[in-house]
Amino acid sequence: xxxxxNRWAAGGLIHKLGPGLYAATTWSPxxxxxxxxxxxxxxxxxxxxxxxxxxxxxxxxKRLCDILGLSRSSFYYWRRTSTARETRQTLEAGLxxxxxxxxxxxxxxxxxxxxxxxxxxxxGPAVNHKRVARIMRSIGLEGVRLRRRYRTTVADQAAPKAxxxxxxxxxxxxxxxxxxxxxxxxxxxxxxxxxxxxxxxxASRRLARWAITDHMRTGLVxxxx
Length: 225
Hints:
Number of helices: 8
């Protein structure tokens, strides 16, 4: 028991006053009754409840609760609801398996809303998207988020139109006779976006020149030519 108490003391859950002497980390009275699932420190509370349950026969519930700063009403509530909690965990494990399958069937693209729709189409117990989202987070699944579209060209209606030198004919029979170009927006995580200018030979369909920078001014185009 004292080895476990020393681990609690090292983790800050209780305070070690001396050899074999422990107390709650705060000197305030035991906290009021709260449910283990909804407590702000829910994981720590569940761990303390489990510790009391494991050692109550040898040391008594009252003594252990006083040492751990745990109200006895919280412990008894935790123990009284253990069956319902285990049933809920079993149901959620089954739901997690269905969510994982739906996610795999979508090639990893579906998020919580679409997986929720798939589960409803399959029938079975009703489930809402918030529950699906929570379970997906717990098992490390997420859908593909479409990136925001950026406009790389804003036409000036008052400016003269550039002539169409190739007449919309994107074919060529000889190399180095027709070139076309484009600018592509490249998002960069945690940094400014980049812009890629490319020049393609229409005869070979291969990249002839390219340039990349963090702006879309005239210098980007001239650098690619």
